[in-house]
Amino acid sequence: MSTANHVLTIQTKNQPVVLERLLQVTRYRGFEVAGMEMKPMADFSGLLVTLSIVSDKPISLLTNQLNKLYDIEYLDCVESQQTQAEAGSMRA
Amino acid sequence: MKGAELVIKLLEQKGVEHIFGYPGGAIMPIYDALYQSKVKHYLCRHEQGGAFSAIGYARSSGKVGVCMATSGPGATNLITSLADALLDSVPLVAITGQVSQAVMGTDAFQEVDVLGLSLAVTKHSFMVTDVTELEHTLNEAFELAMSGRPGPVLVDIPKDVQLAEVQFKPRLVEDADTAQQEFLPTVALEQARLLIQNAKRPIAYIGGGVHMADAVSQLQDFLAQSPMPSVTTLKAMGTVPPSNPYYLGMLGMHGTQAANLAVQQCDLLICLGARFDDRVTGKLAAFAPDAKVIHIDIDPAELHKLRHAECAMLGDLRQLLPAMSVPTHCEDWLKHCLSMKQQHGWRYDHPGERIFAPLMLKQLSERMPDNAVVCCDVGQHQMWVAQHMSFSHPRNHLSSGGLGTMGFGLPAAIGAQLARPKDTVLAVSGDGSFMMNVQELGTIKRFRLPVKIVIVDNQRLGMVKQWQELFFNERYSETDLSDNPDFVSLAAAFAIPGHSISRKDEVLPALEAMFTWPGPYLLHVRIDETDNVWPLVPPGAANQDMLTEKAQ
Ligand SMILES: Cc1ncc(C[n+]2csc(CCOP(=O)(O)OP(=O)(O)O)c2C)c(N)n1
Ligand SMILES: [Mg+2]
């Protein structure tokens, strides 16, 4: 496994099936998960998921598909080399 | 009332008149609530068939199709049809019963993780864990199925939720008129107009998204104001009227030569509600190699997915098409495309007295009543239908495109006949495909649906046989169906009359007999097992390298 080159920060609805959906779409679209973290939001209204992704394909091929998921409220994508400040929100 | 009653009341409130399904243990409360309800339920004979009927209903009418099944085997039987609806973007709501939450996760009788199974084959799926969420969830399911890029949505309802008490006040159906004026991408539109004005060889590549956006008339206006040649995908056939001189037909693996050659030569490809599927593009890297691309779709994930677009626009084709119309300057190109169309026209001068399926289907097309719906199965006959029949609207040609599912045609025809009782509905099937949902003859019998069934019988899994002949050294592994049943007797067992023909001179009288018969009818058409579909773009080849019959 190579090192992650993108970090996705995702806020989702608080649904038990959400993690499966995220991982299923990521695998099916041909992206590799190099790290993952999940915790409920402070008020339990949703989940915060961080996915570290390895890919040589444009990351938009994944973020465009993830953004379509009904359970996803917010998605932010940062290239690992970039600083936080340079990267903008990917959520339309 | 109980959750189960709420389900049916909500369907009534939504104006759902017809649903397709099959009962079983975990959905019995809902079937009990259905008893004597205003919603008319059509009992299929296999849940896959029921869901295909719901798809046929949706695709022929533009409404949401609804199907129901019990937990476990009922729900797993729906999976193929959900996948079919996903790949062809069909608005479908599937309601499944689930075992009670008290025993969920214990491998209870007829328990399967349907929510888990549904992930890969639905646009979205819900599991209702509390009866107070049932109404909202069902409303969301209908909204999601229809909105944006349509698709199948599954709602899994445990039995305890169906039996729980809940408050429900029937509301007047609020006519959600969401036709708000969208913000138009002015910069991209200006760029598109410039590209169109400056193109020497523009072409419109039209997909199913155009009619799903209800933009058929906007598309036709666009082609009138910006004259250019057009080609369609399998799903979009009927979007451009066959009378349009610059319409070149279907493109792709079994597309017309004129369509494929014109796309390969164009300098501007305007992709409207289509997705560069591999059956369309052939070798992707060599597809329309000299073209700049304008791509419009409602699904952001389709833009730049397989082909970079110089100008990509996300939005509603009803608004974008009129805003993109400008005069074109491509007279020589139009003439060139016309001459290619003439040069590569279909030939029907087939020797001998055996029936030539392309000619038979052309005759069928010419004789079927206006606005007839043709539901196809999958294989050679499906491609012949696309090549040799004409359609005045894409809702009149239902074919399983993205998934290519054998067994689609007959149940889809049942749904179409119920959605459009005044129109003639035909199921054109192959001898292989017909047998995959043949049990639905029982549904036709019960409801006396006047579906006309045409079986194109080559005693083969013809399309696979064709590939074995061309690409697997004529090793005909498991494609022989020469021990087919007697299809006319089979139909007779369901009180459906039929007739079998094998000679050219029998075709016209047989079509006449079929169309004048008031009820369901089966016409069994024997053809030569050696007939193949031409032209054909071999796998991995570019679309200009089509094989034609003469080259064989
Ligand atoms: C459910 C399913 N199984 C297998 C296939 C693969 N397949 C594609 S076409 C075809 C043959 C279809 O035979 P038939 O219905 O007789 O049509 P023909 O090609 O002979 O016209 C097969 C097996 C498929 N598309 N769908
Ligand atoms: Mg066959």
Written description of the protein model:
The complex is a heterodimer of chains A (92) and B (552). Chain A has one domain (2-91): ACT domain (Alpha-Beta Plaits), CATH 3.30.70. Chain A contains two helices and four strands. Chain A has helices at residues 18-28, 60-67, and strands at 6-13, 32-40, 46-54, 72-79. A four-stranded antiparallel sheet of chain A has the order 2-3-1-4, covered by helices on one side. In chain A, β2 (32-40) and β3 form a beta hairpin. The longest helix of chain A has 11 residues, at 18-28. Chain B is an alpha/beta fold and 552 residues long. Chain B folds into three domains: 3-163, 3-Layer(aba) Sandwich (Rossmann fold), CATH 3.40.50.970; 186-343, 3-Layer(aba) Sandwich (Rossmann fold), CATH 3.40.50.1220; 357-526, Rossmann fold (3-Layer(aba) Sandwich). Chain B is 36% helix and 16% strand. Chain B is globular. Classes of the chains: A alpha+beta (92), B alpha/beta (552). At the A-B interface, α1 and α2 of A face β5 of B. The complex binds thiamine diphosphate and magnesium ion. The site of thiamine diphosphate has 19 residues of chain B, from α16, α18 and α20.
What is the oligomer described by this structure? heterodimer
Level-2 CATH architecture of the largest domain in chain B:
3-Layer(aba) Sandwich
Number of helices of chain A: 2
| Largest interface, counted by CB within 8 Å of the partner chain's CB | A-B, 15 and 14 residues
Coarse shape of chain A: globular
Strand content of chain A: 35-45%
Ions and ligands: thiamine diphosphate, magnesium ion
H/E series of chain A, N to C?
EHEEHE
Mean pLDDT of chain A: 87
Name the CATH class of chain A. Answer: Alpha Beta
CATH class of the largest domain in chain B: Alpha Beta
Point out poorly predicted stretches of chain A: 82-92
Strand content of chain B: 15-25%
**What is the helix fraction of residues of chain B, given as a range?**
25-40%
Instruction: Tell me how many strands of chain B there are.
Output: 18
> Could you tell me how far the N terminus lies from the C terminus of chain B, measured between alpha carbons in angstroms?
68 Å
Widest sheet of chain A: strand order? 2-3-1-4
Using the coordinates shown, work out and report the CATH topology of chain A. Alpha-Beta Plaits
**Considering DSSP H and I runs of 4 or more, what fraction of the residues of chain A is helical?**
10-25%
Q: Report the CATH architecture of chain A.
A: 2-Layer Sandwich
